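Re: How this chain folds, sequence and tokenised backbone to follow
Notation: Tokens come from a learned vocabulary of local backbone shapes, not from coordinates.
Start of record: The labelled sequence and token lines come straight after this line.
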Amino acid sequence: MNDYPKKRVALLVTTIGSFLTPFMGSSINVALPSMAKEFAMDVILMNWVAMSFLLAAAAFLVPFGRVADLYGRKRVFLYGLIVYTIFSSLSATSTSPILIIFYRAFQGVGGAMIFATAAAILTSVFPLGERGKALGINAASIYLGLSLGPSLGGLMTQNLGWRSLFILNAVIGLIAILIVFWKLDGEWAEAKGEKFDLIGSTTYGLALVVTMYGISLLPYELGLLLTGLGVLGLTTFVVWESRMKSPVLNISLFRNNVTFAFSNLAALINYSATFAVGYLLSLYLQNVKGLSPQNAGMILLVQPAMMAIFSPVAGRLSDKIEPRVLASVGMALTAVSLFLFTSLSEQTTTGFITANLLLIGLGFGLFSSPNTNAVMSSVERRFYGVASATLATMRSVGQMLSMGIVTTIFAVYMGRVQITPEYYPVFLKSVNLAFIIFSALCFVGIFASLLRGRLSSFPRH
């Protein structure tokens, strides 16, 4: 039987699905100043427009990954597209900051269903020799979303208003839904018949939400309290899962699988160090440099454009060269470029920013696809959904931590103020500190990437 049509359709729909959420996230970064003006949002409330999505996505990724392994990856993927599309449409109708944050949270639930299954579907359809290439193309779609977000998002925000971004997302989501209904044959559920751990899933989701929300409130006492409670909840979850016959997250994957554990840790560190870069530079370019959303977006475009170019290449190479080597080189390049941003000032030229964004894009492009290939190729078929969801969770938690670090720094240095000229000096100090922390994180990430061990041959399933 010729599987080529199935592979092609699976790659197409997962590529569209993987494009949607990063496009939304990066375009929102450019649109946030316009949204803040319309709703008179302070810097903390503005952060929550971005963080509500990440928080919801992180809480639901692993449970939906397990649901996908049990009941079907295509089914969960399709439902995710439907939820995402509905709440993208509703977001366009928002009349207050609270409504937009609420709708963005439900967008995050749909995004979790999409990201928990996209890599798992590809890993189910493509054999080992072709998997790195497919995952590389999928990663390229994520970076294409990230690259088109600032440029197209800036253009649309300036000429059509920020609501047009949500309408465009809803239209693309609807197209993907129709393709899945009509063209994607088959279903993948290798863990069918096993039980779903509702208690573990609920504990995990609540603990993660409390932890992430607590981090966003640091250094205040409530933030410390909630972070501590969240960590206690996650510890309870780990103990519970270790005793379950059919856990939502198989803890032994971390305990007994060095490749899986350190590849996920490397992803967590990388996203923690890089996600807020676009957000910080968008605020810097539009406020300190006085650029329009469109022009700021064109500068921010270069980083994800480099990611989109190099991800398929790195993915293809990771079928032949140890992912550890490629990913570690990528992490090192990213660390260097983040360190160079610690000197950002009012006098910094846009040429320097553009060149440095190119370097970050190259580093991340070399890191992501090989790292994904290492994670997905280190587990048995019945864990593909959980592995895909775990990696996506590292991405969401990393993104949340990245925004949490920025929110904490802004809270300590700036307080609840709008970014106006009199606050530019303290804003720049905050940005410099954020980049110092991010570059230090990425430096540590190099060692996490190297410690995953040799991967001269992938395990056979």
